[in-house]
C-alpha cells in the first residue's frame, strides 16, 4: 500500500474515525501529533514540541488535506483508531508502507466514557493538568485528585448544558480561582472543545499560586488565559464586557462580590458553587419562632448557609436572571455541592425590599444585598 492509498481509505471511513496518533518522527517538526474528533463533525490537531502543545481545529471537509499535508507527513508509526477497528501504519521513510488492521480497544474506551458521562475522560491528554497534578504522567487521574477531578468535570458539564450553541467569543472571570484546576479546564473546554475565542481571568489573593498558574498558561501557549492577584472584595477588577462569572468554593463573601460583579457588569452567565457561608452564621441569634434553627451549632451552620444561598438566588432572580439550583456533585464528593446557575433573561429588575425585610426579621446583614443596595443593579443590560 502507498501512503496515498492509506489516506484514501481513512477518508472513506471518516465517519468512524476517533483519533490518529503519530509518533517516531522522521524529519517531522513535532515529536508527536494527535488528531482527534471533536463536536460537530470537526477534528482537533494537537502538535507536540518538547515543551509546548499547539491546538489546530480542522473542519471535517478539510480532513483529507490535513491527513496529506500534516498528519501522515514524516512519522515512522501512525495509529488510526476507528470505532470498530484500528490500523497501525508503519513507514520506512522511503515510500514503503506496512498496514495492520485489528479490532480496536477504542470500543472499550468509548463504552467506558459513556458510562462516566464526563466531558473529559481519564486518559485525555491535557498537559497543563499534568503540571497542576490532576493527571499523572500516564494521563490517569492522580489518587488524591479524584474528588477534585469529579467536581471540575461536573462543573464543565453544567456549563456545557447551557452553552449548547456558544458565541464566537467569551470573556470569563473566575473569582477565588486558587490552584485553578477549574480555570484551566474551563479554558481548555471553551477554546479546544468548543472553538470559542476565550479570554479567562482567574483572581486570587495568593501571589504564589497566581505566579505558578501564569507560568503554566505561558508554557502551553494558552493565550487569553491569565491570573491576577487581587482581593475581589476591594481591588479594581476587569473593566470590559464580561460574559460569564464563575466561582468554585470562593470563600464566604468572596462569592457575593463575584455575584455582584456579574450583575453590575451585565454578565449573561453565572456558575457559582458557594462555600463557608460564615457571614450570617456569625450574626444570627435565636429568638421567637426561629430559635429552633439556632440552638445547635451544626443546624445553625446549615440553616445559615441555606438562608445565605436562598437570599443570593432570590436577589439574582430579582436582578433579571433565570436561576437553577443544582446538586452539582454527590455529598460524599463534597458537602459544598449546591451550584447556583443563572442566565440573564433581560427581565426588568425587581427591588429587594422583601428580602431585606426577611433578613431584618433575623437581624442579619448579607453582603450581596448590601452591595446591590449601595451600587444599584445592572449597568449595561446584559450581553448578547
Ligand atoms: C477553597 S479555595 C477554592 C479554589 C478553587 N476555586 C478550587 O475550587 O479549587 C478558595 C480560594 O478563594 C480565594 N479567596 C478568598 N477570598 C478571596 C478574595 N477576597 N479575593 C480573591 N480571592 C479570594 C482563596 O485565596 C482561595 O484560593
Helix and strand content put the structural class at alpha/beta
Could you say which overall geometry the principal axes of the C-alpha atoms support? elongated
Based on the structure given, which CATH architecture of the largest domain is correct? 3-Layer(aba) Sandwich
Q: How do the strands line up in the largest sheet? A: 4-3-2-1-5-6-7
Mean pLDDT: 88
Q: How big is the Rg?
A: 25 Å
Element pattern in H and E: HEEEEHEEEHHHEHEHEEHEHHEEHH
Name the bound molecules.
Answer: S-adenosylmethionine
Q: How much strand?
A: 25-35%
Short description:
The chain has 384 residues and is α/β, with parallel strands linked by helices.
Question: Could you list some keywords that capture this structure?
Answer:
about 35% helix, Rossmann fold, about 375 residues, binds S-adenosylmethionine, alpha/beta
Structure description:
With 384 residues, the protein is α/β, with parallel strands linked by helices. The chain has two domains: 3-116, no CATH class; 127-375, Vaccinia Virus protein VP39 (Rossmann fold). 35% of the residues lie in helices and 25% in strands. The protein is built from twelve helices and 14 strands. It has helices spanning 3-12, 63-71, 106-116, 127-131, 146-162, 181-193, 207-219, 254-264, 278-283, 297-318, 353-362, 367-375; strands at 17-25, 32-37, 43-48, 53-58, 75-82, 86-91, 97-102, 169-175, 197-204, 225-229, 244-251, 269-275, 321-327, 338-344. It has a seven-stranded antiparallel sheet, with helices on one face. A seven-stranded mixed sheet has the order 10-9-8-11-12-14-13, with helices on both faces. Helix 1 runs antiparallel to helix 2 and helix 8 (254-264) runs parallel beside helix 12. The longest helix is centred in the last third of the chain and has 22 residues, at 297-318. It is elongated, with a radius of gyration of 25 Å. It starts with a helix and ends in a 9-residue tail after the last helix. S-adenosylmethionine is lined by residues 176-179, 181-182, 203-206, 230-233, 248-251, 254.
